[in-house]
């Protein structure tokens, strides 16, 4: 989802992160593997830049095939950074990553949607 407000970043370890505003919501598109080497890029992308109340973010994880505990910790921190009143929604979570989220109980904390459009429309 390229746009005039897009800010992209490619970490040396191959994680691609792109932030785009879409109607008052920040859509963060992530591609690659999230592990201890790349979690910092994900953290920088998901923690709201503006301290304004009630930030809203959709994390498009359709390009993420692997996420370890470092990524899980980032998702928890990002969820907390969106409180109170804001939200973090996950979109396009692939089966291996979804399974990890389910195992640690994050699917009860973070809403998951099949794609970005569904997350934005919810």
UniProtKB/TrEMBL annotation:
Occurrences of domain STAS (ranges): 15-122
A Pfam family hit: STAS
Record PROSITE patterns: STAS
Family annotation (SUPFAM superfamilies): SpoIIaa-like (SSF52091)
Superkingdom assignment: Bacteria
GO molecular function: anti-sigma factor antagonist activity
UniProt xrefs under InterPro entries: Anti-sigma_ant (IPR003658), STAS_dom (IPR002645), STAS_dom_sf (IPR036513)
Stated family: Belongs to the anti-sigma-factor antagonist family.
Protein name: Anti-sigma factor antagonist
């Amino acid at each position: 989802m390229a746009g005039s407000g897009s800010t992209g970043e490619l970490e040396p370890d191959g994680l691609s992160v792109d932030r785009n505003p879409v109607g008052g919501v920040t859509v963060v598109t992530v591609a690659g593997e999230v592990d201890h080497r790349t979690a910092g890029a994900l953290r920088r992308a998901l923690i709201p830049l503006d301290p304004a109340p009630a930030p809203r973010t959709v994390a498009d994880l359709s390009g993420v095939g692997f996420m370890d505990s470092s990524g899980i910790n980032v998702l928890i921190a990002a969820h907390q950074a969106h409180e109170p009143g804001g939200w973090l929604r996950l979109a396009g979570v692939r089966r291996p990553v979804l399974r990890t989220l389910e195992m640690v109980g994050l699917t009860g904390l973070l809403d998951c949607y099949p794609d970005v459009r569904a997350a934005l429309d919810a």
